[in-house]
Request: fold
Amino acid sequence: MPEVGDNPADHQERLSQKFQRELNAGLVGLVLLAVLEQADEDLYGYQIAKRLQGEADGHAPVKQGALYPVLRQLSANGLLASRIVPSYAGPPRRYYRITDAGRAVLANWRGIWRSTRDFVDGFTLTEGASR
Reply:
């Protein structure tokens, strides 16, 4: 429900931002596992964020700060392994790599994603609903 004094454009923008946050919450783990599966080396959080930004031409819908809790959770679930390396230019860095369990889960999640995407596309790709 729009707040008193809201203009419709502001309300629509807030709804869109909420929708994007909810989508991101479910997809960040999938994307992080995929990035680490494709990596030729262990990556730390900033490197992962830069790869996401590069793929999205600098407009990734995921904020860098949102990656770290998901990386920790994936690691706690055994889907990622991590190691801490001292840094000469700041705090130590935690590097991540995907585990065999992470690869298996990623394969499963890809299937779930494709099914979900296809389902949603079936309803949203056509414009103009009958009233």
Remarks:
- Residues 8-38 form the longest helix (31 residues).
- The radius of gyration is 18 Å.
- Residues 51 and 57 are 10 Å apart (CA to CA).
